[in-house]
Amino acid sequence: MAANLSNAAAIVGAAESNDIGYPSERGLKVTSLQHHIEAIKNVTDLTGIPISDIQGVFSAGWSSQLAEHLGLKPRYIDTTSVGGCSFQILVHHALSAIHAGIIDVALVSHGQAGWSYRGAGGGGGRNVPGEIDPATEMTMSYGVFGAPSNYAHAMRRHMHSFGTTPEDFAHVSVVTRQWAMLNPRAVMFSKETNPYGGPITVEDVMNARLIAWPLTLYHCCLVTDHGGAVLVARPEIARSLRTNPVWIAGAGESMGHSNMLEMEDFTATSASRSSATAYEMAGLGPDDMEMAMIYDSFTITAAITAEMLGLAPRGQGHTLWKDGHAAPGGRLPINTNGGGLSFNHSGMYGMQLLVEAYRQLSGTAEDGVNGIEGKQTNARTCVVNGTGGTLSTTGTLVLTAD
Question: Please, are residues 210 and 166 in contact by the beta-carbon 8 Å criterion?
């Protein structure tokens, strides 16, 4: 029987790098490594944990390089890189390592100059330049290449199976923008900060430039720069710090496929399994969740994932946004930072989910930098789910306030 890791560790701090969004448009050249290092410096300053106390380094492919730059000789190294959900999964692994007594303090870090180095290897992975794997070649032969065309198939299948429409999913984008307008660091905070920022309507989403039918521009996430880091610590350390701990009550991970042509059902993902594991570990269920952080690479991603997490019935995930439940003041706030659709999406978005979940549950989401009046919720429980690949791999955490 598997060990119960519930509350064996807590997230004790979360921070971002200094210049997120589009720093190159402001004349700044910030590398992916610099985003990592800035975020790590910021989170150690926040918590008071010195860098030298970090015993485990967890990142999507960067861990040995980070350890070298930080002057660390870690006891535990994890380089799991399975797409945007890597960071939920890395927290799961850090929880396991702490529970096993291998380490006391873990760093989970990410940095990605997704905008500044677009097309020039600025991503989080380590693929061989110019090499295309056979599965991708097979998919391309069917006319499917690139994220929008893949996710367009998922939306179209959902429409066929459940009678949904592109207008239904447009509400995800509209509500997420409402949250972004409460976050001064969001790319789409206002028209003053970005000509495309500020409020949008369903009609705006529907009339935007077509990307891959039925996806228009506003159905798709941003491409930006971002760095983020969280520190995970055993309970004794967590309770001794000046920051508020956020407890890891449950964690799970799973995958359904690698190549989307092998996906059994375009409207169902492995989030149903990873969340079931996390809920069981936490001793909680979907009805106990007061907030959700859901990967929103596309509007369809968020809607399908909400269904897989048990937050809405099959075919009705979009109603959480359409009926106002996910919006500011709603019963189930979702993606309170503005999401990948309107806050920031560097390519692998799972870290942004973690940072915002920590801020909300620690009561620090409304401080003049990370949010203005109305952004801080009173949620005490949160389900955090990341998606990697093309609706492929998922990691789910159930987090609770102290």
Answer: no
253: three-class secondary structure by DSSP: strand
Give residue 401's identity as a one-letter amino acid code: A
50 by Cβ neighbours in 10 Å (0-12 / 13-18 / 19+) ranks as exposed
Sketch out the chain's domains with CATH numbers: 10-118+222-401 (3.40.47.10)
209: Cβ–Cβ under 8 A, 6 or more apart, which residues? 216, 217
Cis check for the bond before 195: say yes or no (omega within 30 of 0): no
Q: Where are the beta strands (DSSP E) in 221-355?
A: 225-233, 246-255, 292-294
DSSP, res 150: H
Residues 260-319: tens digit of each pLDDT: 888 999 999 999 999 999 999 999 999 999 999 999 999 999 999 999 999 999 999 999
Please give the Cα distance from 283 to 77 (Å, whole number): 29
β pairing state of 246-255 and 10-16: antiparallel
Query: Would you tell me the crossing angle of helices 63-70 and 32-47 to the nearest 10 degrees?
Result: 60
Can you say how many angstroms the Cα of residue 109 is from the centroid of all Cα atoms in its chain? 13
CA distance 165 to 174: 15
Contact 78, 63 (CB under 8 A): yes
Nearest 5°: phi and psi at 59? -155, 170
Helices (H), strands (E): how many in the chain?
A: 12, 11
DSSP 3-state of 293: strand
Query: Is the Cβ–Cβ distance between 281 and 249 less than 8 Å?
Result: yes
Q: What does the pLDDT look like over 64-114, one tens digit per residue?
A: 999 999 999 999 999 999 999 999 999 999 999 999 999 999 999 999 999
Q: Which residues contact 190 (CB under 8 A, 6 or more apart)?
A: 181, 197, 198
Where do the DSSP E strands lie in 279-337?
292-294
